[in-house]
Amino acid sequence: MAQNPSELITVGMLKDLLNGYPDTMELDFSGLDFYRLKQRSPTLVQVEFNQQVYRDKQTGRVVVENLE
């Protein structure tokens, strides 16, 4: 699955963005239900949700589909 580099951030960047927030603070994924983190390669971790999220190849729009 080829990724647009602008869609990716590093773990370090995410940690820096979260630095200063207490461990008890909740994260909101704007309606997506967090499922898990999955390592896809030695240098890539994918955040997975209970919804399928992908970019439409023709329009470039992000599509979200419930898997139920």
Summarize the structure.
It is built from one helix and four strands. It has 68 residues and is mainly beta. The chain is globular.
Structure report:
There is one protein chain. By secondary structure, the protein is mostly beta strands. It has a domain at 30-68. Helix content is 12%, strand content 35%. The protein is built from one helix and four strands. It has one helix at 11-18; strands at 34-41, 44-49, 51-55, 62-66. A two-stranded antiparallel ribbon has the order 1-2. The protein has a two-stranded antiparallel ribbon with strand order 3-4. A hairpin with a 6-residue loop joins strand 3 and strand 4. The longest helix has 8 residues, at 11-18. The protein is globular, with a radius of gyration of 14 Å. The two termini are 23 Å apart. The model has no long low-confidence stretch (mean pLDDT 90).
| Strand arrangement, major sheet | 1-2
Give me the secondary-structure category: mainly beta
Low-confidence stretches: none
Q: Give me the Rg, rounded.
A: 14 Å
For the terminal residues, how far apart are their CA atoms? Answer: 23 Å
Topology as a string of helices (H) and strands (E): HEEEE
Into which percentage range does the β-strand content fall?
35-45%
| Total DSSP helices | 1
